[in-house]
Amino acid sequence: MTKAVAAYRNVWRAINIAFKEDVELMTGARMRLRSEFEANRNLIEDKEQLDEKILHANAVATLLRQNLVQGKAKEGSEDKPKYVLRLHEEIELGDNETIFQGKTKRDTPTKLS
Questions:
Q1: How many CB atoms lie under 10 A from the CB of residue 26?
Q2: For residue range 45-92, what is the model confidence (pLDDT) as tens digits?
Q3: Is the keyword Coiled coil assigned to this protein (predicted)?
Q4: Contact 15, 33 (CB under 8 A)
Q5: DSSP labels, 74-110
């Protein structure tokens, strides 16, 4: 049970970080979090499913913290919108070099006549 509470708090904190300046999204995410945990309250007896749900919750928290970036349109840029991104210290910043490593050439499909 304490693992479930820790996972709940982990996701709650991640929501606070990810949606810091967007009260509407933050409120919606908190409501969804609560409803998901309430819906799975009966899993106390099934340890295997409970552990799976706790892992999922912690993965969601990690995703919210490291991969979600908020963008806000700048004022006066209706014709060509420009956005300001809110990056925080937990955002995973990287380069695209790792994407290309380890890929092998695939056989190109042949054209059917």
A1: 15
A2: 788 998 999 999 999 999 999 998 888 888 876 778 888 888 888 888
A3: no
A4: yes
A5: PTT-SSS--EEEE--TTS----THHHHTT--PPPPPP
Residue 5 corresponds to which amino acid?
Answer: V
- The three-state secondary structure class of 73 is strand
Structure tokens of 61? 């928290």
For the beta carbon of residue 21, count every other beta carbon within 10 angstroms.
Answer: 9
Could you identify the residue written with the tokens 């409970």?
Answer: 50
Please give the distance of CA 18 from its chain centroid, rounded to a whole number: 8
Residue 91 in tokens: 């955002």
pTM: 0.74
pLDDT tens by residue, 21-54: 899 999 999 999 999 999 988 887 788 998 999 9
